[in-house]
Amino acid sequence: MAKKVLVVDDEAHVVELLKMNLKQHGYEPLCAYSGMEALESAERYLPDLILLDIMMPKMDGISFCKVVKNNFMWNHIPVIMLTAKTSVVTKVEAFEIGADAYLEKPFNIQYLLTRVKNLLDSRKLLFQKFTQTPYSSLKSIAGNEADEEFLIKLNNAIENNLENSDFSINDLATEMGISSSGLFSKIKKISGVTPNKLIQSMRLKKAAELLSEGKYRVNEVCYIVGFNNPSYFSKCFQKQFGKLPKDFSNNVGELT
195 to each of 47, 109, 164, how far by Cα in Å? Predict the structure, then answer.
């Protein structure tokens, strides 16, 4: 599915230029010509990234960025500020309110597209590293302070229920105090995977941690982390870590 990029600028020719280039590179561009219009688009489409002009009527880019970064359902969205203003004060203000990048007009379109790609790819790469590293915390995939607070709470909620094989997204949503649909959307946007996949990844990471300690057999670890089927557990473990559980620890004889 194509990533949605919301372009917000009151200059029509800039919007059209960005729209054309984003389409050519496989993105789904969404267009808005003011901060107020952009709020409606963000609410309706929940974009993956926002390209935002600073100087606009009614609601300028700084004000819009503040709204985005203070909204629980939006604060994970990367924002690239586009502006003709070159003062250091403006740049500092943009970064202080949470902007992820700042490009001065006129900008090089290839450079801009590279920044877009890197910001969108970074989440995926961080999550891949997180899943493959047993002792890393979920907060390691955070893109900003608000993400980190959310992920620490999410990490604790999941870890406290790893042994419960029936623990579901509805249970997780209840613990987090969020609707199931809201939680699904938030987790999918931050990590790139569904809540169920995230829960499974964390079960497997805990399994790798336990296997590394050499205190439990593979079948014991399987049930400790909430899997009911040892063969399915081994299959999932191998897919995530590239080796079977029995081969993960140096103490292979004790774990088979």
Answer: 19, 35, 15
Q: What is the pLDDT of residues 85-125, one digit of tens each?
A: 777 888 888 888 889 999 998 999 999 999 999 999 887 88
Q: Helix, strand or coil for residue 199?
A: helix
* Domain spanning 4-125: CATH superfamily: Response regulator (3.40.50.2300)
Tell which CATH architecture fits domain 133-255: Orthogonal Bundle (1.10)
Distance of CA 165 to the CA centre of its chain: 25
181-208 pLDDT, tens digit per residue, is 999 999 988 888 899 999 999 999 999 9
Cβ-based burial of 130 (10 A; exposed 0-12, middle 13-18, buried ≥19): buried
Return the H-helix or E-strand segment holding 222. helix 218-224
**Which residues are within 8 A (CB) of 59 and not within 5 positions of it... i.e. 6 or more apart?**
34, 35, 36, 38, 39
What H or E segment, with its residue span, contains residue 131? helix 109-132
Cα–Cα nearest to 243, from 255, 227, 226, 225:
255
Sheet with strand 4-8: strands edge to edge: 28-32, 4-8, 49-53, 79-83, 101-104
Token reading at 63:
């004000």
